[in-house]
Amino acid sequence: MIRQKSSLLGHPSYYPFASWLFAACLLTGSAVATKAKAQELTILATGQAGAGNIIVDGSRVYWINNNNSRVSSVDKLNGGVVFIHNPANNVPGGNIVQDNGNLYFASETGPFLPSVWNLYSVPKFSSIVHQLTVDTVNTETTTSGSGRALGISNGSLYYFGGLHSINCPGSRTYNPNYPDNCNDNRTIQKISTQGGTPAQVIPLASFPNLNIAPGSFDTDSVYLHWSDLNAILRVPLVGGLSYSSDANAPNGPGYLRTPTTGPAGGYHFWVEGAPNAVLREQTPGGAPFTLLNGLENTGFNSFVQVGSFVYCVMRFQTNGTITGIPINGGTPIEMVDAVHAFVPLGLTSDGTYLYWTASGDGSIRRSTIPPTTNAATNVAAYSATLNGSVNPGGLTTSVYFQYGPTTGYGFTTPVQTQTGNTFRNISANISALSANHGYHFRIVAHNSAGTGYGGDRTFTTLTATGLPVVTISPATLIASFSATLNGSLDPHGLTTSVYFQYGTTTSYGLTTAPQSQSGNTYRNISANISSLSASTTYHFRIVASNSAGTTFGGDRTLTTLTATGAPVVTTNAATNVAISSATLNGSLDPHGLTTSVYFQYGTTTSYGHTTAMQSQTGNTYRNITANISGLTTHTTYHFRILATNNAGTRFGSDRTFTTP
């Protein structure tokens, strides 16, 4: 293996900045972006002029040179020596994708019209490059010569296959019924990441007049999605005789992402229009709408979705900032100003940092994703719950909220300490507010790398008295013939009667006993119902009335269990934890059969110890406890509940406690 090195500063350069500038990126129906403060900006590599698309894994960041197909990487946290996986070869480079062990990229291979590209692989810690596609007729990846339509899923690479000789006079496939389609019959092809013979995902033999033009690919577990001339389309990953439409995109869509998990699971995001493009979004079952203006439809990976935000390279109106916007719309937040972004081109993220290729100086840059301020909840007359999210980035981090009647804030919530490398939700309850009053708030996070500020948000407290406020919640303890209905209520300063309606239709027909509540704060409301039918779906909603009127919660459903079946168990938190003893807790529904239940516990998830077996019968949930002793001080123990009957065995989830 030959390593080719490029010179790099001995240490990454840090540019701490006290505050971030206001962005001028415009959101449809809103004003200007708010600002966020970053914890750090790091230059990981220099001398990378022409760097375009960029990806990241657990340890390194990788990029491909748009001008010469050089593929390079560097340590994603510390920078250092740049490793060359594919040397420069004076032909354009396209897209780059990855799996656990390898990189895959497109590189132009011939002066054909349209341009011809081939696909290559290289191990992540090697410079031994393998050419995967060798038939220049079948391996054109785009008609525009960019090589950016490249996707990967389940051991296959997907690309835009151009069959140049299809339907041309003199070729064996010539069809005089379509004389104008010479060189225009193209399809999507796939090839194993190990190489081999390419296969047509949409067979041209079935579509002699096919003329699609994929610009960007993304995959989920079922479909290959792509942006085309005027739509977002899909086809089964295994291939098919047809393709379907995900969304209309009449102004020419470009880079596309279709996340499958998290808060944006099932969404579609794409860049559309040129040169001043927009970021478009379509939620599951919804219509496309514009999230943000001012992007450029370059064909590079110009945005990235992380959690409940999308971060975008802004090439218009803001002169090259990196700006974030909530996936459900809202005020855009400038994450990196134009000076420090330095003409960003490709953008990616590992969930903790943003990484991008800065075409202004040919550098590879990284910035911490600051904390996010989310909408307030449980807003009452004199109290509210403030919400946000933060990723500590591997450092012990202090988190709190600032709030007050102006953006000067003036009040703070108690500090919470967080550690780890993933985003988590942060909440804080505040009280002693004024009724019918507007408040500003934001989340603040501080660690040894610096201080990060979420964007400013607002809420307005309720009037001192008024209609009750209710929210319906999922049912719990659903058994064969019983269940618990749940919701929340703010009586809104007046004595309020609250109950649930339930039944097998939205006409309900049955009600729980009314409960009387008063005050100006939210509280949980629950009611147990019985005499239900097994294997039956029920509708329910919460209803509250006071002297100001009646409020109905939304409709929810539950489905009861079969009359008999495997036991249902839940492991609950341990209690009475002492130096050498503890009480293990769980819940059980025997599900109509005589059931044996006990706990497993030990210092690992192999457990090794069990409590005495208990016998239970019936069709309702009940608490199960067991006292254990003989434990070791300052030791972490794992435990779970286990239940067995004639229908099967069920295990509760693993939980832990630590002895003092």
* Derived structural class: mainly beta
Weakly predicted, low-confidence segments: 1-32, 136-146
Helix segment count? Answer: 1
Roughly how much helix do the residues carry, as a percent range?
A: under 10%
Describe this structure in words.
The protein is mainly β. Among the domains are: 1-83 and 307-370, no CATH class; 382-460, Immunoglobulin-like (Sandwich); 469-559, Immunoglobulins (Immunoglobulin-like); 568-658, Immunoglobulin-like, CATH 2.60.40.10. It has 1 helix and 58 strands. The strands form 13 sheets. Strands 34, 35, 36, 38, 39 and 40 form a 6-stranded antiparallel sheet that branches. Strands 43, 44, 45, 47, 48 and 49 form a 6-stranded antiparallel sheet that branches. Strands 52, 53, 54, 56, 57 and 58 form a 6-stranded antiparallel sheet that branches. Strand 22 (268-272) and strand 23 form a beta hairpin. The protein is globular, with a radius of gyration of 29 Å.
In short:
By secondary structure, this protein is mainly beta. A hairpin with a 2-residue loop joins strand 38 and strand 39. The chain is globular and about 75 Å long.
Features of the shown structure:
6-stranded antiparallel β-sheet; 58 strands; 1 helix; 660 residues; single chain
Topology overview:
Layout: E1 5-6, E2 13-14, E3 34-35, E4 41-45, E5 51-56, E6 60-65, E7 71-75, E8 79-86, E9 93-98, E10 102-110, E11 116-123, E12 130-131, E13 150-153, E14 156-162, E15 186-192, E16 199-200, E17 216-219, E18 223-227, E19 231-236, E20 244-248, E21 253-257, E22 268-272, E23 276-282, E24 289-296, E25 303-306, E26 309-313, E27 322-326, E28 333-336, H1 338-341, E29 344-349, E30 353-358, E31 363-368, E32 372-377, E33 384-390, E34 397-404, E35 411-412, E36 416-418, E37 424-430, E38 438-447, E39 450-453, E40 457-460, E41 469-476, E42 483-490, E43 496-503, E44 510-511, E45 515-517, E46 523-529, E47 537-546, E48 549-552, E49 556-559, E50 568-575, E51 582-589, E52 595-602, E53 609-610, E54 614-616, E55 622-628, E56 636-645, E57 648-651, E58 655-658
Parallel strand pairs: 3-28
Antiparallel strand pairs: 1-8, 2-4, 4-31, 5-6, 6-7, 7-8, 9-10, 10-11, 11-12, 13-14, 14-15, 15-16, 17-18, 18-19, 19-20, 21-22, 22-23, 23-24, 25-26, 26-27, 27-28, 29-30, 30-31, 32-33, 33-37, 34-35, 34-36, 34-38, 38-39, 38-40, 41-42, 42-46, 43-44, 43-45, 43-47, 47-48, 47-49, 50-51, 51-55, 52-53, ...
